[in-house]
């Protein structure tokens, strides 16, 4: 445009100069002024030209195209776990990008392909994890599905975000109960094994014999030798019971107040050191009662030939029978054995109740045995005997 205007200006100067017959010096001045004006116009246009050409600048009035988003939220999708019947519930935001395909390819649902690809990748991880590790599985899936990868058909690139992995409330309660039961069972199993080990230790090592029991006791109480000696009888009885055997005869001297027949399975003894049939029939409690009474009379200084021993035993047996105390029959049998032991009646001075105490010639100062004395007879005391 500037060159065209310069050319028109030069033609105007030539026509004007010829018509007016300018002087020779006016021609150079006119053309110089024309060139100066053209140069000034060119410099002004260059200064106003933008740095980026106009053809490379977007038109400001064109609308910005909206960003197309390919995403879908899936909620509580059940994926299998390592335990049957316990599923993970997965919630995630699936994102994908369609891939260019050749012309004429069939139309597909890109959302369906993306969701299926994401869930298939997630299933590979969940099927190998126990249901108790839901929080760990959530972090594993977040890392695995964070990369956008193509689906098996190659039509979309898919990934997942905002993953949440949970269990149903019922499954969570069941797993908590099962875990609690397993823990209790493990504790019980350890306690049972500990008890079995302790029983085996005591039965097959400590209580195999009285000697091993004494050695075990000394090992635990090495500063109490005198106590070990005092407890030999108790250890012997424990060893005999643990092995279902009687106490050896050589250890009967260590048994306090117990005769030879007092081993496991033996019958109780009477005051004369012999087996009482009635006591054996009444059981262990009756035999213990009779043996205790015999020891009491021995400790009280009543000898076996002392008539007072028979009198005391008979009174205790009658009172026990009248009150219904267990073992009364054993005491009565013991009194009968003592009465048969007396061959001759004692003298009047030895009888606790005098000559009138006998009341009969069948017993030494005893009189005939009455099975059920009345309360009046018991209140008479020595006068009836």
Topology:
Blueprint: H1 2-20, H2 26-48, E1 71-80, E2 87-98, H3 110-126, H4 134-144, E3 149-150, E4 156-166, H5 169-206, H6 210-220, H7 225-230, H8 232-242, H9 277-282, H10 284-299, H11 307-323, H12 328-341, H13 375-380
Antiparallel strand pairs: 1-2, 2-4, 3-4
Helix pairs in contact: 1-2, 3-4, 10-12, 11-12
Describe this structure in words.
With 385 residues, the chain is an alpha+beta fold. Helix content is 51%, strand content 9%. It has helices spanning 2-20, 26-48, 110-126, 134-144, 169-206, 210-220, 225-230, 232-242, 277-282, 284-299, 307-323, 328-341, 375-380, and strands spanning 71-80, 87-98, 149-150, 156-166. It has a four-stranded antiparallel beta sheet. Strand 1 and strand 2 (87-98) form a beta hairpin. The model is unreliable at 257-282 and 346-385 (pLDDT under 50).
Write down the overall mean pLDDT. 75
Structural class: alpha+beta
Strand content: 5-15%
Widest beta sheet: strand line-up: 1-2-4-3
By DSSP (H or I, 4+ residues per run), the number of helices equals 13
Give the beta-strand count.
Answer: 4
> What is the 3D shape?
rod-shaped
The helix/strand order is: HHEEHHEEHHHHHHHHH
Spans of at least 5 consecutive residues with low confidence: 257-282, 346-385
Helix content: 40-55%
Q: From the alpha-carbon coordinates, what is the Rg to the nearest angstrom?
A: 61 Å
State the gist of this model.
With 385 residues, this protein is of the alpha+beta class. Helix content is 51%, strand content 9%.
Which features does this protein show?
385 residues; 9% strand; disordered C terminus
């Amino acid at each position: 445009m500037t060159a065209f205007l310069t050319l028109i200006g030069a033609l105007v100067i030539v026509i004007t100069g010829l018509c007016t017959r300018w002087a020779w010096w006016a021609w150079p001045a006119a053309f110089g002024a024309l060139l100066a004006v053209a140069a000034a116009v060119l410099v002004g246009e260059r200064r106003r030209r933008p740095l980026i050409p106009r053809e490379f600048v977007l038109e400001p009035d064109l609308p910005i195209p909206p960003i197309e988003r390919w995403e879908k939220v899936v909620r509580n999708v059940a994926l299998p776990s390592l335990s049957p019947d316990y599923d993970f519930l997965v919630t995630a935001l699936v994102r994908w990008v369609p891939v260019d395909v050749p012309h004429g390819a069939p139309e597909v649902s890109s959302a369906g392909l993306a969701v299926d690809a994401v869930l298939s990748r997630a299933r590979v991880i969940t099927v190998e994890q126990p249901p108790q590790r839901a929080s760990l599985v959530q972090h594993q899936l977040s890392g695995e599905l964070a990369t956008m990868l193509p689906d098996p058909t190659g039509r979309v690139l898919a990934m997942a975000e905002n993953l949440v992995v949970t269990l149903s409330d019922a499954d969570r309660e069941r797993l908590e109960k099962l875990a609690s039961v397993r823990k209790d069972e493990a504790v019980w199993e350890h306690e049972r094994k500990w008890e079995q080990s302790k029983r085996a230790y005591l039965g097959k090592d400590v209580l195999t014999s009285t000697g091993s029991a004494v050695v075990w006791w000394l090992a635990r109480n090495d500063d109490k030798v005198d106590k070990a000696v005092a407890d030999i009888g108790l250890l012997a009885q424990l060893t005999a019971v643990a092995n279902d055997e009687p106490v050896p005869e050589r250890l009967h001297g260590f048994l306090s107040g117990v005769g030879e027949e007092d081993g496991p399975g033996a019958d109780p003894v009477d005051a004369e050191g012999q087996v009482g049939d009635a006591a054996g029939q009444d059981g262990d409690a009756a035999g213990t009662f009779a043996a205790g009474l015999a020891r009491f009379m021995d400790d009280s200084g009543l000898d076996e030939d002392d008539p007072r021993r028979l009198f005391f035993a008979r009174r205790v047996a009658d009172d026990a029978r009248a009150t219904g105390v267990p073992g009364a029959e054993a005491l009565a049998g013991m009194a009968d054995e003592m009465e048969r032991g007396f061959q001759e009646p004692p003298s009047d001075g030895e009888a606790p109740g005098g000559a009138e105490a006998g009341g009969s010639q069948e017993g030494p100062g005893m009189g005939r045995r009455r099975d059920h004395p009345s309360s009046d007879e018991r209140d008479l005391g020595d006068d009836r005997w």
